[in-house]
Amino acid sequence: MAKRQLVITGPASDDPDEAPSLGSRREVLTTLSKFNTWPDVEGGEFLYGPGLTMQMTPGADELNQMLVAVLDEDIAWSVLTRICKATHWQLLDLESGRSLAFS
Questions:
Q1: Is 22 exposed, middle or buried (CB count within 10 Å of its CB: 0-12, 13-18, 19+)?
Q2: How far is 70 from 52, CA to CA, in rounded Å?
Q3: Are 10 and 83 in contact (CB under 8 A)?
Q4: Taking Cα atoms as reference points, which of 1, 8, 27 lies closest to residue 81?
């Protein structure tokens, strides 16, 4: 069972009406593969990585957010931090409502 749930969103945008994009499904998968995070089946919407799982929006080609379940905080936080620094994505903590950006 997940200890914490987060949402990954795209980089902050100057336009408040525009949802920042993470990229296409293919781009996101290519990016996350560099962090040992990948679906267990071809075309799957659930991604598995060190200490975490991620869920992509079913059927969407352009992704604006992904749900992250942290399973092992000691491992997952270092992976999530590296992902967010490399991509400029942000994390939204669903428990506290805080948005976390990494530079």
A1: buried
A2: 5
A3: no
A4: 8
Tokens of 72: 């092992």
Q: Return the closest-CA partner of residue 54 out of 8, 101, 1, 100.
A: 8
| Burial profile 72-81: b = 16 or more Cβ within 10 angstroms, e = fewer | eeeebeebbe
The model carries a pTM of: 0.88
Instruction: Name, in order, each residue with C-beta under 8 angstroms of 69's C-beta and a sequence gap of 6 or more.
Output: 2, 4, 5, 52, 53, 54, 55
One-letter amino acid at 36 equals N
Give the pLDDT confidence of 42-65 residue by residue, as tens digits.
Answer: 889 999 999 999 999 999 999 999
> Would you kindly state where each structural domain of the chain is located, as residue ranges?
4-12+21-101
CATH class of the 4-12+21-101 domain in this structure: alpha beta
CA torsion through residues 54, 31, 12, 20, sign: negative
Q: Could you tell me which residues are beta bridge partners of residue 53?
A: 48, 69
